[in-house]
Amino acid sequence: EEWCLLQPKIELHAHLNGSVRDSTLLELARNLAEKGVLVFADVEHVILKDDRSLVECFKLFDLIHVLTTDHATVTRITKEVVEDFASENVVYVELRTTPKKNAAIGMTKRSYMEAVINGLRSVEAVDVDFIPSKMGQKNSTMNLSTDDMCNGTARKKIYVRLLLSIDRRETTAAAMETVQLALEMRDVGVVGIDLSGNPIIGEWVTFLPALKYAKEQGLLVTLHCGEVPDRKEEVNAMLDFLPQRIGHACFIHGEEWIKLKSSKIPVEICLTSNIRTDRFPSIEYHHFVDLYKSKHPVVLCTDDVGMFSTSLSKEYNLAASAFGLGKEEMFQLARDATEFVFADDDVKKNLREIFDSAEKKFM
Ligand code: 5GP
What we know:
The protein is α/β, with parallel strands linked by helices and 363 residues long. The chain is 47% helix and 14% strand. The structure holds guanosine-5'-monophosphate.
């Protein structure tokens, strides 16, 4: 449906390295093949493969990291990812990424993040707002006029905020380093912390000290929660932590499901990602239905547009067709996400205005 593309949308669960264009990955693979670092034919089919298990996904992430993790490439993919979201009328994206260290190329977690910031600065196709305005001080570099947003002719504008991800492979000290970095980078748009990475690796107690510290210091936290079956204890501990949002929530049952419902913690829903990695026999069994019907806060997200060959518009289309939701309901779903963003109240206010003016145009 065209309206899924045209209406303004908010993306709250997108991993930078999962959102790289296939064409870029192939180009990077070709370059490395020329240097003899890898054999192109070996990686081409991995990149272009459509259906993959969760295990295969994490293997592909390791390959993607080989292809992308130098400063210039991190800058490039950040720029492209933001441009791609803006081109489908995403007006606010919270991009998450795992700061990476690589002594061989002089990369620290900080220099990795600086490369990301350079990517945001180098976007030319659209206007990017990623520097939070200081208390009471209007952001002079860019004032997003609501009339300009989602106007087919005007230049597109997008808010970008960043979440730093802790990878479940990391130690407590490494997780703490990421949180410290996030605190130091608040003035360039870092608003929170994410816990992600292979869900069958690592223990909650390893990350808890860093997550607690993040919370104490005023960073907002989202957790990948209930991604794999039989993690009752971890799910419980995660819900007790009271994160500001959780991602996926595919395998939460019984008491924990009740706890989630009464907590009203917003859930980031990634339909295509969940279906592609076989979390459900088919989409009608997806917990979106239960959450949506009971008016639990939910937001449709992409997870990894590159990895799962999707886009936020496609996710909206999929939800509309699979769950029989109409144009008004889908517009409202997009608008509701305004209340779950980690950016400050000024941004929220602006987003509300964007949806109000879009409502007149689209409804
Ligand atoms: P990056 O943080 O390197 O920019 O983005 C890729 C990383 O995001 C992956 O290596 C993984 O740690 C995390 N990630 C991406 N998609 C998923 C997912 O569906 N589940 C989990 N748990 N982690 C993911």
